[in-house]
## 1
Amino acid sequence: VASQLNSSGLLRTQGLIGGKWIDAYDGKTIEVYNPSTGESIVNVACMGGRETKDAISAAYDAYGSWSKITAAERSKFLRKWYDLLMAHKEELAQLMTLEQGKPLKESMGEVNYGASFIEFAAEEAKRIYGDIIPAPFSDRRLFVLKQPVGVVGAITPWNFPLAMITRKVGPALACGCTVVIKPSELTPLTALAAAELSIQAGIPSGVVNVLMGNAPEIGDALLESPQVRKITFTGSTAVGKKLLAGSAETVKKVSLELGGNAPCIVFDDADLDVAVKGTLAAKFRNSGQTCVCANRILVQEGIYEKFANALLDAVQNIKVGDGFSEGVVQGPLINEAAVKKVEALIHDATSKGAKVILGGKRHSLGFTFYEPTVVCDVNNEMRISREEVFGPVAPLLKFKTEQDAIRIANDTNAGLGSYIFTNSIQRSWRVAEALEYGLVGVNEGLISTEVAPFGGVKQSGLGREGSKYGMDEYLEIKYVCLGNM
Ligand code: ADP
């Protein structure tokens, strides 16, 4: 696959700084692996602080002109980029499956989803309106201008190698910002291919820069630079907190999408089929490796047995394998550390009384494949309920009343995705309002879309991405007072 992709010109291994593809200054590289086979795909440039400083300078230089062209012009560039992403959907999806492991069909879905943020940004670029405020004095006029924040540092994870980048870069560029992107070292190839397409779209040199390598060093260079006015990050809560603290020195604007601990609450009055289908989608997508994956499945006692049996049947049918194989719906986990974490959480849960009723071990395919798993008799004190599982494990917790469900669901420091299944309109409103979460799916397990705001409360993050609200993250508000008229 790699050599095929190479001939399409989208297999890039260098960093992109100021419109030029370049090696690390000291020539260092890092390997990118296929998690499905453990084989090395290719080596990419391993960059650090010096390259980051140059990327920031390039972005700063480009900012002057990019922020001054018209919104309509920026919109056209973004539209072109979107068209190219869609035209290269298959190659991008192949790269993604190769480095990330998700089934090809899911990768194709992510290209659609990822590209949609660029399309939306192209449209929204033209709608960044200011305001005129009725003045309290007759000889004054008060105006509100919206202006780009400046150079943006975007740090992204491996679970959505394209969408986590476009969700940040689309609105940033639409608003007139320029960006320095640091994708995950585990999945840089999709990011580099998308960057190559941004060049082909004619987006001027320096507007989009990409580098990867020594993450803390790149992160520190972004944090230290007074020219970087905004940090936008998706990843672990621990790294997010470091970036927030590190932004204090230069008082940067910060957006964070951090870890979740999504409750999926199935009430007695739920439609069983809808609840099972929704739970499957919310839990097993991307092998359970998303921050909005159902982490705790809370099931009311009246429907518990029936739901557990129906879920078991459905999970048994999940076909595990290499993402390029026909019919596979669950690929490998990203790396050995991810499997070890799942094993530790299962071990902790079973040692405290939980029962594995399906799976619960590494898959016979080897490497980092893990069996689709269902665990019963879980409680909210076990590590599996306190930490993000990030694997194909469905832990079931039994509850009695609506109040219990809300209390258990909110008993966490996280607050990103949540799901409820009920056929009562009143209950759905009551519970949706009571959940301390940024997103609530009612009778629906997949709710992310570019047109709706995505983001968390409590320690799940700051700010929102996607939708018209996501644009504000890249804008400053300026008040202009015209006096003595
Ligand atoms: P995950 O568990 O999803 O890998 P991480 O928070 O470790 O979450 O990684 C998300 C992104 O943050 C990756 O691009 C990673 O390289 C980057 N990263 C990790 N540590 C740092 C750091 N100290 N400074 C800046 N970025 C970092």
## 2
Amino acid sequence: MSDSSTANKTPARKITAPKIRALKGDRKIRMVTAYDHPSARVADRAGADIILVGDSVANVVLGRSDTLSVTVDDMVSHTAAVASAKPKALVVGDMPWLSYHSSREETVRNAGRFIQEGQAEAVKLEGGRKRVDMVRAVLDAEIPVMGHLGLTPQSVNAMGGYRVQGKQAGVAYELISDAKALEEAGVFAIVLEAVPDLLANMITDELTIPTIGIGAGPGCDGQVLVYHDVLGYGEGHMAKFVRQYTNLSDIAVEAMSAFFADIDSGAFPSEAETYHMPAESAEVLEDLNKPRTSSLMADEAMER
Ligand code: KIV
């Protein structure tokens, strides 16, 4: 575990896609996912360079078993929540499955929604040479694009599961060609997910744009993990490449149990947590609310 006290915290100025590109060879790039305003604040305060509003929201927030069911509407809504935190970090919106597969026009319209409605500053999409045409279309609309190669979760059915990609030389060579094609098309960075370190190192050395690894070894130009995995906020299987830095679920259960115990005992709310009425209003209210005898009510009626 690194010494967080030495980490360079939130950068002074807004990070842009060209700045991320320029970080190659300078220092490691820090990227994490986030899906809402408070998590974006946490990531930004800790010094993230890039906040990815990943379609992993499907798994870690919406409780789904894969990412295929999230829509552009879902993603744009989460992206807007993240962007509302006004982070210094670059906000990248993850284009969901089928939002960039059918035509250039639809791809640009969907990517544009991330920018106009979600206030993202770039989009990410999965795939290599097969997607280069769509990458170019988005870039032509002046939207920076991040690539994503290796284990691309939107291809889970085609890949036959979530498996490390590029263990065989032939497949690895194809991935190098994909990375070069994406670079040539103009992406500003590429995520490499679940690939052998040797392959990640080769791609990192060959490209002039940064690679950001997740399960791709230490040689990439940056690293990314899913927010809930870093903080241990969730349950279930953790991939080998995940390092959990705390256990927020346990901390949250402990805090919530203390709240419930205070409800049970009456210790919550306290005097300081309670609103009071000014004394004169209390007097008037008590008077108004006094039980009245029927003769008193009759007297009052006569007086009116
Ligand atoms: O959706 C996501 O969280 C991602 C990261 C794993 C890179 O694509």
